[in-house]
Amino acid sequence: MRLNALLGVAGVNYLESEKAQKIGRMFEFIVLIALLVVFAQVFMLFSEELIHSHWINSLIWLVFFAELVVNLFFVKNKVRYLKENWLNVAIVLVAFPGFNWGSDWALIVRSLRLLLFVRFFTSFFKDFISILNRNRFGQILVASAFIILGAGALFAFLEDKTFWDGVWYSLVTITTVGYGDIVPVSEYGRIFGVFLILFGVVFFSLVTANISAFLIGSEQRKLERDILDYMKATEKRLANQQLVNDEHVERIIMHMSNEIRSLKTEMKKLQAESITKLRQENLERHKDDH
Fold first, then answer.
1. CA distance 12 to 82
2. What tens digit of pLDDT does each residue of 185-200 get?
3. DSSP for 35-55?
4. How many other CB atoms sit within 10 Å of the CB of residue 80?
5. Each residue of 270-288: pLDDT tens digit?
6. What are the helix (H) ranges across 134-186?
7. When you count CB atoms within 10 A of the terminal residue's CB, does the N or C end of the chain come out lower?
């Protein structure tokens, strides 16, 4: 079983209809906005800046309730949807605005809704793993981590800094951020900084290239799927049209066969009548001769 289904935040199953999945994705975006509001509420409460607005909590609850009811209406397998989204159901029931949980329990209930972030993190995690597996990008990141640590240690030795100061300088230099809070002052430190900057440019080029390739590849795969679906639909439509044409041709052949049989019967009848008429004429002529 999938992790998000086990946690009860799976959303609309991929086996459902395209319409149900489309509506589910639309509600996921709306729910994500509601979760960001909940996230802000929790942190504002800790900073004692929370604006006590009952209508905001009611609106957030209404978003979760609408997602549950609408998705449940459009999915075919309603039991599966409830099983894979049991946490959604629990949140809708527990966070009902009519319940007065008190200030302490209200914070816990609001924080409980943040578990729905798992639904979005699982999708992001799959994409992240796909990026790491592409062109050995994961190994590049691990090697870069060792280089950052090694470069930080070497910088700390050259500039007489602490190890963590050296790692911080190495990190902000390689990532081309360059805060400027820690800078080399010795000649050897500056020479080392030049090589570190050049490495940072190459490293970040690899990172952006891999991410860009993944995004472009995703769009390309989507385009290929759309083309494949169109080809399958076209093939199915042509097959149906071929069946219709075959049935039409068969009806024409049967009609022509019936017409030919009818013509043959009529011709035989006319031929028989002609023979009978000729015989009668021959008998009458024979009588006249005698």
1. 10
2. 898 889 998 998 888 8
3. HHHHHHHHHHHHTT-----HH
4. 15
5. 888 888 888 787 777 776 6
6. 137-159, 163-174
7. C
